[in-house]
């Protein structure tokens, strides 16, 4: 690394994309940590803007985390992907599971596997006591993961920024995502150790990425354009435009309730403070644009 101002561009990400990632999705990383984040994402085909992968810095150390969206994306690259089901189990539910021997069509062998026999929901459901996830694949027995609440309860007291907040506020959703990742990894043999990624050379590219002085290029580009944020008034105007664009994008995504908007921002916004910064707004808008494009592509594929 030739100096702290020099970052390497990788893949099809533009200078603006990389600067946005550095300020939001990987805020707090050093240049070397950020390069590892970029290289890991590119080598594994994961898109940070779609919440596939993100960096968490705590006490100067970086941990790369793969979201359920990222694990599901990797699973879909395998033949026979048929989705997954994840559910929480509460104290007033009726729940039964048994260990059975099933036949694996691909290997021709019989294997032990957990099978959900019964899951009936009663209201009020009471406290969460566990969760399970089943990953499906053509030609393979369903891969089931059962997890007791005691195995994840520590996340509510996590010291990692934002983790405690997410687990406290969206407990059921976070638990389902956690167990679903385990099931998908098991069914499709996804060998990606999130907490230990900083040493995982197997998923990094063998060749060095092309290095460019991003800071110099950004400064040069800025000199050719009118300054965009010279005064607080300019920033306020930009923030207003971003908020108006967000309203328009939420409408395109079909998200209209305050609860739905709050959940979307919590899952994809990566907001560090009480109010989003201009950079965080722009990062979220980029994510929304990608989701809108995906939704449009899915709508276009439907029969007329």
UniProtKB/TrEMBL annotation:
Pfam families: RecT. GO terms for biological process: DNA metabolic process. One of its GO terms (molecular function) is DNA binding. This is Recombinase RecT. It comes from Paenibacillus faecis. The lineage of its organism: Bacteria, Bacillati, Bacillota, Bacilli, Bacillales.
């Amino acid at each position: 690394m030739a100096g702290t101002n020099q970052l390497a561009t990788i893949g099809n990400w533009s200078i603006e994309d990389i600067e946005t990632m550095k300020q939001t999705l990987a805020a707090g990383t050093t240049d070397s940590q950020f390069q590892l984040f970029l290289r890991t994402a590119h080598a594994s085909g994961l898109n940070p803007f779609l919440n596939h992968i993100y960096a968490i810095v705590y006490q100067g150390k970086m941990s790369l985390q793969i979201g359920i969206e990222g694990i599901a994306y990797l699973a879909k690259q395998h033949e026979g992907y048929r989705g997954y089901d994840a559910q929480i189990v509460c104290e007033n539910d009726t729940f039964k599971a048994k260990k059975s021997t099933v036949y694996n069509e691909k290997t021709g062998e019989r294997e032990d596997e957990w099978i959900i026999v019964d899951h009936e929901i009663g209201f009020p459901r009471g406290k969460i006591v566990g969760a399970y996830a089943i990953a499906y694949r053509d030609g393979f027995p369903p891969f089931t993961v059962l997890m007791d609440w005691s195995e994840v309860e520590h996340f509510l007291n996590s010291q990692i920024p934002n983790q405690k907040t997410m687990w406290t506020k969206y407990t059921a959703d976070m638990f389902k995502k956690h167990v679903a990742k385990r099931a998908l990894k098991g069914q499709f043999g996804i060998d990606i150790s999130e907490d230990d990624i900083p040493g995982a050379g197997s998923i990094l590219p063998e060749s060095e990425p092309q290095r460019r002085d991003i800071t110099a290029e950004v400064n040069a580009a800025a000199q050719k354009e009118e300054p965009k944020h010279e005064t607080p008034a300019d920033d306020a105007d930009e923030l207003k435009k971003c908020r108006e664009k967000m309203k328009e994008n939420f409408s395109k995504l079909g998200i209209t309730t305050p609860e739905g908007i709050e959940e979307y921002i919590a899952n994809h916004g990566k907001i560090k403070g009480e109010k989003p910064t201009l950079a965080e707004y722009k990062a979220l808008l980029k994510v929304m644009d990608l989701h809108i494009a995906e939704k449009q592509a899915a709508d276009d594929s439907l029969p007329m």
